[in-house]
Amino acid sequence: MSGIAGILRRDGKEVPENWVNYLEQSLMQGGEPTYRFEDSTPVQSGNLHIILLGSNLGTLPKFVDGDESGECAIASWNSETLELQLDRRGTGQKPLYWLDLAEAGNGLVFCSNPLPLLRIARELNLQNNFLTQGVKEYLQLGYVPDGGALVLPVCSLPNECSETDISLFISDLPCAISTTSAEDVVKLVRILGLPFADSSLLSTLWQYKEAKHRGHSVIDGVHIGKKKTNELDRAISRKIALNAIAMHVGVDVTITNNDCQIEPISFPLATWLRSIQSNLGQLLETTIQAEGAFEGLPVEQKDVIALHEAHMQGEDHTKQLFALLTLELWHQQVLA
Hints:
Elements: E1 4-9, H1 17-27, E2 35-43, E3 46-54, E4 62-66, E5 72-78, E6 83-90, E7 97-100, E8 107-111, H2 114-123, H3 131-141, E9 155-156, E10 160-161, H4 181-192, H5 200-214, E11 218-221, H6 229-249, E12 253-256, H7 269-274, H8 279-289, H9 301-312, H10 318-335
Parallel strand pairs: 6-10, 11-12
Antiparallel strand pairs: 1-3, 1-8, 2-3, 4-5, 5-6, 7-8, 7-9
């Protein structure tokens, strides 16, 4: 996975090395090397510290995630004015999150993935006062809107929107169903840094891997038009997810603004979640029944277990269980 990240402290305090490790580990998920720019400047409060990280080495001190003339997120440091500039451009494929250190110190931390920022916020006791609202929003929509309440106090940098007129055929990507669906679900939560209820992202991961194996580029589609706000948010969320998966796999993907998307692989998710023989069914059972599961979230573990038991008896609660599974897996990764 490519991306950018960084830390700016103006309060004279040293930057904790474990914060840098969180950010580096997030950027290195796809196996790409991470480059580092670091500088310190004397200011009234002590030393100002700036650290920039990126998978693509550009003209220092600037890191760009993507194509600066198209879809991108940019972090640049002006050593004369001591100003950090963050930009996000394109149709919304490249996310960029930031955390204001607030009372914990004058400065901010930013990253292409929200997970390391949520871990830092937890270390600093920066609370999400809208967690209940965020969980309800996610469970109702099936995704976390860009800048949604679930990830507060981490915020999403607004995107400078640009239109694209790409209109191309959609790739046909048949491939086999993966035998590691449970591992892939955990991996997707880590790649996205968010929970998700759209199980077709599993298919996306497998198909993009197949394209990488064949040496093919990919054309996929997410329609963004004049829609209701929640539908537009859903489309933007999916574009971010497709881009993150493509970057992790290392395949070249063009995401078009049209109704067509790669036909997802059909797989028996309801049966997998019902079967104790499937690795995904085992993951669901062990996750929701683990001691402390959903602790700190506005979700009752006993209610989730009851929903699972009803599903095992033949009722269909596939979408709810999958959404709750990825929510708890995400929660575990935040607490890791």
